[in-house]
Automatic annotation (TrEMBL):
Protein name listed in UniProt: Cytochrome P450 2K1-like
SUPFAM superfamilies: Cytochrome P450
Similarity comment: family membership: Belongs to the cytochrome P450 family.
Residues binding heme, per UniProt: 486
Source species: Sphaeramia orbicularis
Compartment list: Endoplasmic reticulum membrane; Microsome membrane
Length: 543
């Protein structure tokens, strides 16, 4: 997770400046190739100092330290042909110092990633194998799906106790994932019934947007997106001024930020530090409150349960549990714990991710008004003023490309979630032991320089052919791949398309008065997912 902050720290600059920096990383790549010479170091520093006015003395010192670490430790520690190579770890700290240096200076990390496709790094005492680049990530997650498809739960999520879908493994995970997928599909995921729910929610969101002048999009977007998962899970949506609903969504949002905080990362590595970590207590308090709220909702649903007419996932789960109990099955996975944790997983994973992506999309449209104009021209020409439908997607190639490019560049889950190996494996000539934590760096796939023409720019043409038709790209992997691929992908894709297109049809997005487009900051706020930093937008009605 600490690498994650490293990957993203660098987005404090505009994409143009980042591109310049990536050129500097070529120098670093050469350094990492072990040909460390004084001339190289001097050249790199010259380049760094010229290419970025924000290079501070601290940054320079950090780079020097990193060069020292890399050249003095063995990046070729696999001379014995065993585990994937990596910098030599220090006792207790492992490679934390190097990684923190990397975090503080993203340029170094991009150099690191460009060079290595498979490496070992020690987060304190924890050994992690990192997969980087499209080919390596695909080879592991897809071609060797069974070996790389286990989850490695972090300490902070231990209250899940192996239940639910996100953090579980084995038979319980298999059963919960299968049941959840089947039932969400039954309640409309990826189908017409769900399309109608999203369209209805779009209307509520439009009304809210109309009431604001310059506003922060976080809450309305979270409430609208959360209502879709609520409709599927509980069987009904909530009003945006219902305090029980809004507090649950707000707590979830804050919790996702906390889970990515440096202090909780330290707690995951050194659990004995827990008692001094305030963020951990705050996070656990939110989890408790959301559990309580869910228990209340479950008991209301149970009182009115009709097995002939299930309203959503919770009803279906309770009916299955009852049926199994009545037929004398005592060892099933359909327990109260699995119900609670699975619902919590769906609520958490189904709200923040999609809402964050939509917020990035609106921010990018505001920053790049010419692209916004092109989207609106296409919507006006193809749809006019009628309601957008899912089947319109194939006639809106530019809009579709913009949505895909937003997901690629926003890169909201940069390292997927931690995986682990289910057995000993020899991978790309290196030995990886059963139970080793594996981080598939989705960033390195979504920004892979060998797959994308302009990896660091917002460039919708990545998804268009020369005739302007939409083209799929294999390295488009924001939902990850293989056994643990996002369970909600079809729902998320439908939501992104309908919300984005309907909002762009109804509004023109501009910066608040006094702010220029170029001032809009694309630095992400680091959490378990990457959110846009705090900003406000204006939504000017078009229809
Ligand atoms: C733009 C929106 C979304 C993105 C980018 C996204 C991305 C991801 C990623 C990267 C993972 C981890 C995969 C891995 O570990 O390899 C994941 C897992 C998961 N997602 Fe999503 N997701 C999105 C929306 C949703 C929605 C709407 C739902 C709810 C239905 C959902 C439910 C889940 C679940 C339950 C998992 C755990 C799967 C497992 O471990 O078996 N996600 N998602």
């Amino acid at each position: 997770m600490i690498v994650q902050s490293g990957v993203t720290c660098g987005r404090d600059l505009s994409f143009t400046r980042r591109y310049k920096r990536s050129q500097s990383s070529q120098h670093l790549r050469r350094l990492l190739n072990q040909n460390v010479g004084v001339d190289d170091i001097i050249t790199m520093f010259d380049h760094l100092i010229q290419s970025s006015s924000s290079v501070s003395l601290l940054g320079t010192l950090l780079v020097l330290l990193l060069v020292y670490f890399i050249s003095s430790s063995s990046f070729s520690s696999n001379a014995d042909g065993k585990q994937p190579p990596g910098p030599k770890p220090l006792p207790v700290l492992g490679n934390l110092l190097q990684v923190y240096i990397v975090s503080a200076y993203h340029l170094v990390l991009s150099g690191f990633l460009l060079f290595m496709h498979l490496f070992t790094i020690y987060f304190g005492p924890k050994k992690v194998v990192v997969l980087a680049g499209y080919k390596t990530v695909k080879e592991a997650l897809v071609d060797k799906a069974d070996v790389f498809g286990e989850r490695d739960p972090m300490k902070i999520v231990e209250s899940s106790k192996g239940h639910g879908v996100l953090w579980s493994n084995g038979d319980s995970w298999k059963e919960m994932r299968r049941f959840t997928l089947t039932n969400l599909r039954d309640y409309g995921m990826g189908k017409k019934a769900c399309e109608d729910k999203i369209i209805e929610e779009c209307q509520h969101l439009i009304e809210v947007f109309k009431t604001f002048k310059a506003f922060d999009t976080t809450q309305p977007m979270n409430y609208a997106v959360s209502n879709i998962i609520c409709s599927l899970v509980y069987g009904s949506r909530f009003e945006y001024d219902d305090p029980e609903f809004t507090s649950m969504v707000d707590r979830t949002n804050r919790n996702i930020q906390l889970l990515g905080s440096p202090s909780i990362q330290m707690y995951n590595l050194f659990p004995w530090m827990g008692r001094w970590i305030a963020d951990r207590r705050e996070s656990e308090e939110y989890t408790k409150l959301n559990n309580k709220q869910n228990m209340k909702l479950f008991s209301q649903l149970k009182e009115t349960l009709n097995p002939q007419m299930c309203r959503g996932f919770v009803d279906a789960f309770m009916v299955r549990k009852q049926t199994l109990e009545e037929s004398g099955v005592t060892n099933s996975h359909f327990s109260n714990e699995n119900l609670l944790i699975t619902v919590r997983n769906l609520f958490n994973a189904g709200t923040d991710t999609t809402a964050t992506t939509l917020r990035w999309a609106l921010l990018l449209m505001t920053k790049y008004p010419k692209i916004q104009d092109q989207v609106q021209e296409e919507i006006s020409r193809v749809i006019g003023t009628r309601q957008v439908q899912v089947e319109d997607r194939r006639n809106l190639p530019f809009t579709d490309a913009v949505i895909h490019e937003t997901q690629r560049l926003a890169n909201i889950v940069p390292m997927a979630l931690p995986h682990k190996t289910s057995e000993d494996v020899t991978f790309q000539g290196h030995f990886i032991k059963k139970g080793t934590t594996v981080y598939p760096l989705l960033t390195s796939v979504l920004y892979d320089e060998t797959e994308w023409e302009k990896p660091h720019s917002f460039h919708p043409a990545h998804f268009l052919d020369k005739d302007g038709k939409f083209v799929k790209q294999d390295a488009f992997m924001p939902f990850s791949a293989g056994r643990r691929i996002c369970l909600g992908e079809s729902l998320a894709r439908m939501e992104l398309f309908l919300f984005f297109t309907t909002l762009l049809q109804h509004f023109c997005f501009t910066p608040p008065p006094g702010v220029k487009e170029e001032d809009l900051d694309l630095t992400p706020r680091v959490g378990l997912t990457l959110n846009p930093s705090h900003h406000k937008l204006c939504a000017i009605p078009r229809l």
